[in-house]
Amino acid sequence: MLAIAQSGSTFHYLNWVPSERGPLVTHHGSIHKDLENPEYIQQYYFDIIEEIFSSVKNGDPICTFSLDRNQVLFSTCIAEDTNQELIDWHLKQTMDDQLEARIDYYHYPMESESNTILNIGVPQNIRQSFQTNMRLLKSKMNGLSVGIFSAEAGARQWMQAEKFGNYLIWKFGKKKMDELLFIRDGEMVTYFSFHRTGKNGKINWQFGDGAAADLIIQDILNVQDGKTRKFNSAEQVYIYTSEGNIKDVKSFHQMQIGNLTLLNPLSILETGEDEKIHEYNTLPLAETGNAFGGVDV
Question: Are strands 24-32 and 270-271 parallel, antiparallel or unpaired?
Answer without folding.
Answer: parallel
